[in-house]
Amino acid sequence: MYVSLQEVSEYTSGAADINKEIFSTENNSLVLHDSRGYGAGELKNFQKLKEFISDRVGNPNVGDRLHAIWYPPASSAFILVI
User: Fold this and answer.
1) DSSP-based three-state secondary structure for 49
2) Predicted local distance difference test score (pLDDT) of residue 6
């Protein structure tokens, strides 16, 4: 997957835009959306997430629908919700 190094942040919240698609160069069927994160008090970012999910879940275009959510909880384990 190609992601510009300008968009990567390893130690702080990045400048991600949940509406911007990230495409995989190895699998053209895989499209990712990244968010800024949802720490305590991040109501604005959380509202954007809710709007994104609402818009994508009922989208009549199958390619634009939300198919899975992958998020890291407080622990270092990752969870995939389908």
Assistant:
1) helix
2) 47
46: Cβ contacts below 8 Å, ≥ 6 apart:
38
DSSP letter at 31 equals E
Whether 23 contacts 2, CB under 8 Å: yes
Is a pLDDT exceeding 60 seen at residue 42? yes
Tell me, what's the pLDDT at 5?
44
* Tokens 């994160």 found at: 37
For the CA atoms of the chain, what is the radius of gyration? 13
**What's the Cα-to-Cα distance from 22 to each of 25, 42, 75, 76, rounded to whole Å?**
10, 23, 25, 23
Compute the distance between CA of residue 74 and CA of residue 11 in angstroms, rounded to an integer: 15
Tell me the β-bridge partners of 80: 70
For 12-30, the pLDDT digits (tens) are: 666 778 888 888 788 888 8
Average pLDDT (35-55) is: 81
